[in-house]
Amino acid sequence: MARADPQKLSFAVPIFEPHPPMYYIRAVSDSWLQADALYTITLHNLALPEVQTSHTELLDLKPLPVTALGNGTFEALYKFSHFNPIQTQAFHVLYHTDKNILLGAPTGSGKTISAELAMLHLFNTQPDMKVIYIAPLKAIVRERMTDWRKRLVSQLGKKMVEMTGDYTPDLMALLSADIIISTPEKWDGISRNWHSRSYVTKVGLMILDEIHLLGADRGPILEVIVSRMRYISSQTERRVRFVGLSTALANAHNLADWLGVDETGLFNFKPSVRPVPLEGYPGKFYCPRMNSMNKPTYAAICTHSPTKPVLIFVSSRRQTRLTALDLIQFAASDEHPRQFISMPEDSLQMVLSQVTDQNLKHTLQFGIGLHHAGLNDKDRSLVLVCTSTLAWGVNLPAHLVVIKGTEYYDGKAKRYVDFPITDILQMMGRAGRPQYDQHGKAVILVHEPKKSFYKKFLYEPFPVESSLREQLHDHINAEIVTGTISHKEDAVHYLTWTYLFRRLMVNPAYYGLEHAEPGILNSYLSSLVQSTFEDLEDSGCIKITEDNVEPLMLGSIASQYYLKYTTVSMFGSKIGPDTSLEVFLQILSGASEYDELPLRHNEENYNEKLAEKVPYAVDHSRLDDPHVKANLLFQAHFSQSELPISDYVTDLKSVLDQSIRIIQAMIDICANSGWLSSTITCMHLLQMVMQGLWFDRDSPLWMLPCMTDDLLSSLHKKGIASIQQLLDCPSESLRVITGSSAASRLYQAEADPGSGLSGCQVNLSTGAESSSIKDMRHFPQIQVRLRIHKKESSGSEIFTLNIRLEDANTQRRTAKAFIPRYPKVKDEAWWLVLCNPSASELYALKRASFSGRLQTHMDLPSTLTNFQGIKLILVSDSYIGFEQEHSIEGLA
C-alpha cells in the first residue's frame, strides 16, 4: 500500500447450500513472514433473496390494436398497429384505472410506451393535473423531450418543460406545463419547498424511469423524492399516481408495497421475455490491459455480426479511440479495411464534412463511430465504440453488443471497480433490434472468477436495497429547513415513509441489524436519527434544544443551494472577514461536490504540467486529489490555458457547472456574517468563472472576444480601460484611437456618427477566419437612481432606500448574459450591496434580475443615526468592471 489510507477491495464469493456458519478472510503478505491477518464473517443472520422469485407470467394474449385507445388523436401518436405482449397485458390497468403500477421488464420491452398509456389516462380524466417524469440522466431527459415534443406537444397540444442542470424553466412555464421532465436532483431541490410551490401539489402522475437504481449512488435522491411525494399526497389529500419502470426484480413485492402498488398493478416479468430474445456468450479473453481484448472483440464481430450493427462498450473515453483504431488495424490485416462501411461514398463524405472531432472523423472513414461525453452534441447525434453512459442515454439498439471488460478505473478509490450489475444489464439490453432481428447477441469479456456471478444475475433478477443511510444527513437537513422535521420523533416518522424502512424489516443484516423486531427497529431508527442530528449540529447546520431542532444559517444555505452539509461546514470554518481571492479559490475547489471529479490513470502527470503554468501554487503532493484538479481547472479557465487532453475539457464543463451555486452560497455566508470585503471578493470570483478571466490580472476589455494585444494597448493609451468607457466612446473618437492600430479593420460603424459603440458592429478578421460579432450590443449600460423615503412608525423614523435600475443600451434585446467562455446560457443578475466601505460593514444585500428596468427598495438599518459614508454598490454577477458606487449621504 502506497499510503496509510485504508485500501478497499471488493469481490464476489458464492454461498453454497446448506449455508456455512461463517466465512474466513485471510490477508497474507507477499513480502513478510507471519504478517497475515484473519477476519471472520458470520452468516448467521444472512437474509438471501427468495430462491423462487414470484414472476408475472407473460400470458398468451392476442396483441392489442392501438384502436383500443378509443381516441383517434391518441391512436395517431403511434406508428405501429399493435401493442407488444407486455404492453397488451398491462394495458387495462395502465389506461383504464388509477392504480399505482410497478412494471419490471427487460430493457427494450417498450416500458416507455406503457408509461405513456398512464399519461393518456390522466389527460382523459384529469386534464388540469400535471405529469412529472423522473429520468436518472440528462441524456434520457433529452431523449424524452425530443420524442414527446414531436408527438405529445405537437399532436396533443400539451405544454412540456425540462428541468435539468442545463435548464431551469421560469415559474410561468412550470405553472402552465402539463408534462415536467426532470432529473431526480432538480425535482428534489424544487419539491423541498412544496408549501410555496403550487405546481408541486398539482402533480397527478409521477413516472419513475429506471427505479431499480434505488440501490445506486444517486438512489437516495430517488428514494427521497418518492417518499416526499407520498407524504405531500397524504397532507394535501390529493392522490398522486405512481408508475415505476424497472428491470426484473427479486424483491418486487417490497418495492411495490412502498409505492402503494397492489397485486393487480404489479408486473414483474422474467428477463427472458424480451421482444427480441438474447443469446449470451461469456468471453474468456479478459485481461486488465484493455488493448489485449481488442482481438477477441474483433473476432466476436466477425463471428456474430459481420454485416449488422454492433455496439462495443468500454470503460473510458480514451479506450473508445484506442479500441476503434485497433479494430481498423485488424480489418486492414484481413485485407478488408472498409468492411464496416454500409453507405455510399458520397453519403459518407457528407457526414464526415459535418464532424468536428478529428478522432471521430478518422474512425468514421472506416465505418466505426465513437460515443462519449466529450463529444459535442452535434457529433454525438451523428453517430460506435462507446462508454457505458450510452447504455442509459440513447435508445440505440444493435444486433450485437460487446462489453469489453466489466471494470472501470475509479479515480477516487484509485483502483479498478466493477460496473454495477444494472449498468451491465442496460448495456446487454441494447442487443436486438425489434424491427429487424429474430434474436440479439451479447458478448461479455469478463474475468474468469466473476463468470458465475454474472451468469447468475444476467439471467435472474437481482434484489434492490436502499442506500439512503449513507446520504441521510443532507435530506434530514433539508426537511428540518422546510419545517417537516422539528424534533426527533418527526425524523423517525419521516424514515417510515422511505424504502429503507421497508428493507430494514425484510433484510436487517444488510443494514447492520440482527433482527427486525419492533423494539430493535425503533432503537435503530432512533440511534440513526440521533447520530445524524449530532453530525449536523457539529457542522453548524442545526441547533438541538431539549424539545426541538432548528435550522441555522449554514443548514438553510445548504438546502437552498442543494449543497452537501460537509461543504457548508467547511465554508463556515474557513471563510473569514478578509478572505483573499486565492484562498476563496482553494475553498471553492475543496467543496464536497468535487469529490467525484474523475481522476484517470496517470492524470497526476497532466496535473503537474498544468500546475507549472497557473499563477496560484497547489500542493504537489496531492496532484492525484480531485480537489487539486478542480483548482487547476479553474485557474486554467481564468488563464485561458490550453488543456492537456479532451477529457479535461469535459471535466472543466462539469466543474464550472457546479461552481455557480457553490459560489452563490459562499456569497450568502459572507453577507449573513456582515463581511463586506469577503462578499465583494467572492462576487469577483463568480465574474471570473463567467468570463474566463482573472479579475486582478486581466483587463475587463478582454471580455470582448475580438480584443487583441495591439487594440488593447491603443485603448489603454487613450485612457479606455473598461467596457463602460468603450460604450460611452463616440464612434468618431474610436476611429481616431484605433486608426494607427493594426486592429482598426476590426471596427466598422453601423450607427450614426457620434453614437456610442453600443450601436456598432464588431467585425473580426484574422487570417483565414472571419466572423461578425455584435459584441457591444450584448453589454448593459445600467443607470441607477436613488431616493430615500421616510415614514413614522411607533414614534420612530423608518428610512427606505428606493432604487430604480434602467438599462440605457437600447440595442439589447435580451437579458441573457454575454459569457462566450462559459459553456451554458445564463440570465444576468445584479447585487445591490448596502454598506459602509470605510468601516468595512455590510448592512444589506439584494439580488435582482431584470430586463429593461426595475424598481425595488431596501430598508436602511434603524441603528444608523446618520448616513455618512453609507453607499450602495451595484455589482454584476457576470461582467468584470461594471461596478457602480453611489453615496446616499446627501439623499436624506
UniProtKB/TrEMBL annotation:
SMART domains: DEXDc, HELICc, Sec63. It holds the Pfam family WHD_SNRNP200. Keywords: ATP-binding, Helicase, Hydrolase, Nucleotide-binding. GO terms for cellular component: nucleus. Residues 295-492 form the Helicase C-terminal domain. Belongs to the disease resistance NB-LRR family. This is Activating signal cointegrator 1 complex subunit 3. It comes from Capsicum annuum.
